[in-house]
C-alpha cells in the first residue's frame, strides 16, 4: 500500500504535495511492490511536475519492497539530481537498507534516521 501526503499520510490514491521549505514529501507504507506500480509512477510524476529539487520519502512504515519501488526511487533521484537536489529516505528499516545495499544503491540516497524493523 502506498500512502502519500505532507505531514499526515493520506489515503491510498491521494497525491503527495509540496511540504514547505521547497521539499516534496511522500509517505510509503506496507508492501510497496509491483501491485503499487501505478501509484509509485504517479508519485514520481508528481515530483517531476512539482519543480522542486528535494524529495523526502518517508519509508518508516514500509514492510516489503521490490525492484518496482527501487525503480521509482531511482527515477525520483534522477529528477532531483538534474535540479541540483537529492532524495532523502526518512527512517528506512533494515529490510529496505539491506535491499539498497545488495543493489549497490546506498550511496545514492541521503538517509534521515532509521526504523527498527
Helix and strand content put the structural class at alpha/beta
How far from one another are the termini? Answer: 17 Å
CATH topology: Transcription Regulator spoIIAA
Main beta-sheet strand count, sense and barrel state: 6 strands, mixed
Tell me the number of structural domains: 1
**Fourth CATH level, the homologous superfamily:** STAS domain
| Mean pLDDT reading | 83
What is the element string, with H for helices and E for strands?
Answer: EEEHEHEHE
The quaternary state of the protein chains shown equals single chain
CATH architecture: 2-Layer Sandwich
Beta percentage is: 25-35%
What portion of residues is helical?
A: 25-40%
Low-confidence stretches: 1-15
Walk me through what this model shows:
This protein is α/β, with parallel strands linked by helices. It has a single domain (2-112), classed as STAS domain (Transcription Regulator spoIIAA), CATH 3.30.750. Helix content is 33%, strand content 29%. The protein has three helices and six strands, in the order βββαβαβαβ. The chain has helices spanning 37-50, 67-82, 94-102; strands spanning 2-3, 17-18, 23-32, 54-65, 86-90, 110-112. Strands 1, 2, 3, 4, 5 and 6 form a six-stranded mixed sheet that branches. Strand 3, helix 1 and strand 4 (54-65) form a beta-alpha-beta unit. The longest helix has 16 residues, at 67-82. It is globular. The two termini are 17 Å apart.
Amino acid at each position: 500500500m502506498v500512502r502519500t501526503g505532507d505531514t499526515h499520510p493520506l489515503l491510498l490514491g491521494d497525491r503527495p504535495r509540496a511540504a514547505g521549505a521547497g521539499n516534496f514529501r511522500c509517505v510509503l507504507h506496507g508492501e510497496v511492490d509491483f501491485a503499487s506500480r501505478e501509484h509509485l509512477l504517479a508519485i514520481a510524476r508528481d515530483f517531476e511536475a512539482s519543480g522542486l529539487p528535494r524529495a523526502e520519502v518517508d519509508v518508516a512504515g514500509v514492510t516489503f519492497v521490490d525492484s518496482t519501488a527501487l525503480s521509482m526511487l531511482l527515477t525520483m533521484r534522477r529528477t532531483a539530481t538534474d535540479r541540483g537536489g537529492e532524495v532523502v529516505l526518512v527512517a528506512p528499516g533494515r529490510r529496505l537498507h539491506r535491499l539498497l545495499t545488495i543493489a549497490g544503491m546506498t550511496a545514492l540516497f541521503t538517509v534521515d534516521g532509521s526504523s527498527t524493523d
